[in-house]
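Students often ask why we bother encoding 3D structure as a string. The short answer is that it lets us treat folding as translation between two languages. Here is a chain of 129 residues written in the first language.
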Amino acid sequence: MFGYVMVGTNDKARAAEFYDGLLGELGLKRIFDMYHIVGWGKKLGEPWFAVCTPVNREDATIGNGSMVAFAAETEADVDRLYNKALELGATCEGKPGLRGGGFYCAYFRDLDGNKFNFHTPGPDMRNAA
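And here it is in the second language, the structure alphabet:
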């Protein structure tokens, strides 16, 4: 389990509005907003996600090969969350569907180009448990 995941942004206010709208769909809330960082989670002391402007004051850039994956409960949730991300201005990196390894997911890039997915076990994974 991770403690937190953070991605860079060049526009903290714009990114915060995007993630307020998107992560609220997962029941997450903004748990802090200070200096150059905004974080979302259920409560402090549990894993959280954040966006930040770089401390070195250089432009934030996306990580080639880096991705953050958010767990969803059902395939319908993956679809709904993916559509919400696109509604909020994200771009498609892979429409919802079954992928190798037996999971159901959808990929998108946020307003700064960071890559994400929403995923849930597909039928093969659920039946193997």
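Translate back mentally: The mean pLDDT is 92. Keep this in mind for the problem set.
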